[in-house]
Amino acid sequence: MEPGKRKADDSIGRDEKRPKSKKQWQVPRRNDHGGVQAKAIQPGDSGIWATCNKGREGKCVGELQNLFTEYAELLYGSTLDAGDSKGDGTEMPDAADIESEIQAEVAGIRKPSAVQLFTSIRLHVQCVVFFKTVSPIEPVSFVKRICEDAANNSALKRTRFTKRLSPMTLMGRPSADELGKIAAEVLAPHFHQQPIRSRKFAIRPSIRNHNTLNRDSVIKQIASIVGPDHTVDLKNYELLIIVEIYQNICGISVVDDSFERLKRYNLAEIFDPTPKEVMNKAQAVSEKVEGAIDESADVADLEAQPMGLS
């Protein structure tokens, strides 16, 4: 009995001495390149889709993180510096004073860290990556500048694994109502500014892993929001409305007619163009598909009268 009793007493003593467990604070999960890993794309976000070869998603994220950061400093450097330099206007105390050193160190710890302009979103999908962006980054002009520089000087090649970049001005849920709200906000600066200037436009939807909205309904709805003051022209458009719908998220952006010249923002094509004969075949197929979309959407009727939201 005694050994058993001693064993019980020992266990009680250990329980009494055991300190209370504290909830551990977890550091935000970071990706392989030091960026904070966001959980998902949210309505109201803006960002940049990118495609790459299968199995190269991690490499693609890494090289784009570096490329985007470099261009952010190039294009928005003064804005970023102005934000970082804001303070309380007080001078730093004498470093020789130990107490002042401690105060300076504490102040440095409390100082908020710089805003992360680009956040990679883990999609768990092959060949596709997404970067969420925040102000002052404007996805369309940002991506266009990258592609312009690439087209003007192939020696600037900084990517090996990235293919197409697709800037998204605004993201939301892929329902008819939500699509209408997003489109109204994104299209307004391009089509509804007074005085209205008639523009030739085209709509290019891309729908993947989604079966609620279809191409025809998307084209009709977007065209109705553009309104009757503008003309559909699939080949010689001035403005192209890009609609990306993927699973449970959709995004819209408007690009200008340099989109085709810049290989539809495909960096791989800009740096290493596909042979012309192969490209001609691909273009013929694309025009066939667009013609079918044009017919099914009854674009002629869209030009004649606006259609309400579905």
Automatic annotation (TrEMBL):
Stretches with biased composition (Basic and acidic residues): 1-18
Domain (THUMP) ranges: 150-256
Keyword field: RNA-binding
Residues covered by region (Disordered): 1-40
Protein's GO biological process: tRNA modification
SMART domains, sorted: THUMP
Keyword tRNA-binding attributed: no
Record-linked InterPro entries: THUMP_dom, THUMPD1-like
Protein name: THUMP domain-containing protein
Entry keyword annotation includes RNA-binding: yes
GO molecular function: RNA binding
Organism listed in the record: Friedmanniomyces endolithicus
